[in-house]
Amino acid sequence: MLDPKEQAEKTLREHWSSDVFPADPIKIAQLLGIRVVAVELDDGIFGLIRKNKGFAPLFT
Known about the structure:
Layout (H helix, E strand, L loop, with lengths): L3 H12 L9 H7 L3 E2 L12 E2 L7 E2 L1
Parallel strand pairs: 1-3
Antiparallel strand pairs: 2-3
């Protein structure tokens, strides 16, 4: 099983400049080919990633 912390650190190393803080999760998602959209979500939901077969991931 992949370690989430190690994967997050790897993603930052590969897709974000270490001298720029804080990291921009929207920009990183776009660099990974994830389409980002802003929508109203239900109370208590702060974001989600949806992946449908044959389509690029969608980050909301």
